[in-house]
Amino acid sequence: AQTVTQSQPEMSVQEAETVTLSCTYDTSESDYYLFWYKQPPSRQMILVIRQEAYKQQNATENRFSVNFQKAAKSFSLKISDSQLGDAAMYFCAYRSGFNSNSGYALNFGKGTSLLVTP
Amino acid sequence: DGGITQSPKYLFRKEGQNVTLSCEQNLNHDAMYWYRQDPGQGLRLIYYSQIVNDFQKGDIAEGYSVSREKKESFPLTVTSAQKNPTAFYLCASRRGLAGGRITGELFFGEGSRLTVL
């Protein structure tokens, strides 16, 4: 099974600054998808950004961008101009592209808790 | 608005009792999933269903059961055989095939918090 590792249990950033959350994964597949989800205190899981492995260009969504290094199996999330509302648990997730044995379920890391200070 | 509704939001259960968590979606999605979340553990897959009347075990299915009689509904029963049922449970859904590829992300409900007394 593919494993997803988030090595930073907690991170802190000051408002308006930039922070990068790390994620590495282990897979032998060439076709897959990677995701970052945000879970605020309400505990609702919200999709932040998605990256298809066959696309070389890094995905970007407003203040959120990723650094996808396929060879290194690394998928970090950069949050620019951090806001108080960005405080949440962030989960990195992996999913197979084809022929999934788990119904194309997402395989999650253990999460990084992001604190944003004024 | 389309979405996923989980109920109840909070549930208390005595040891030895079965309890059923409801999950309903009006997104017309084919696939549905149940995850369990514990502090420091991330989300772990309990069961999933890709079509009506079919479901498969995930990584931690022991002590749980599901049914998928309707496309919209995927209830999870936590049985007395589950040794440590206190947790946060999340239901999710996904669109089906699009041009031969599974491209969709998972959409999540707001979760159910189960506490065993």
Q: Can you offer a commentary on this structure?
A:
- The complex is a heterodimer of chains A (118) and B (117).
- Chain A is 0% helix and 51% strand.
- By secondary structure, chain A is mainly beta.
- Chain A is built from no helices and 12 strands.
- In chain A, strands 2, 5, 6, 10, 11 and 12 form a 6-stranded mixed β-sheet that branches.
- Chain B has 117 residues and is mainly beta.
- Helix content of chain B is 0%, strand content 50%.
- In chain B, the strands form 2 sheets. In chain B, strands 2, 4, 5, 6, 9, 10 and 11 form a 7-stranded mixed β-sheet that branches. Chain B has a 4-stranded antiparallel β-sheet with strand order 1-3-8-7, with no helix packed on it.
- In chain B, a hairpin with a 3-residue loop joins strand 4 and strand 5 (42-51).
- The mean pLDDT of chain B is 91.
- Chain A binds chain B through residues 1, 9, 33, 35, 42-45, 47, 50, 52, 91, 97-98, 100, 102-111, and chain B through 31, 33, 35, 40-45, 48-50, 56, 58-59, 88, 90, 92, 94, 101-103, 105-106, 108, 110-111.
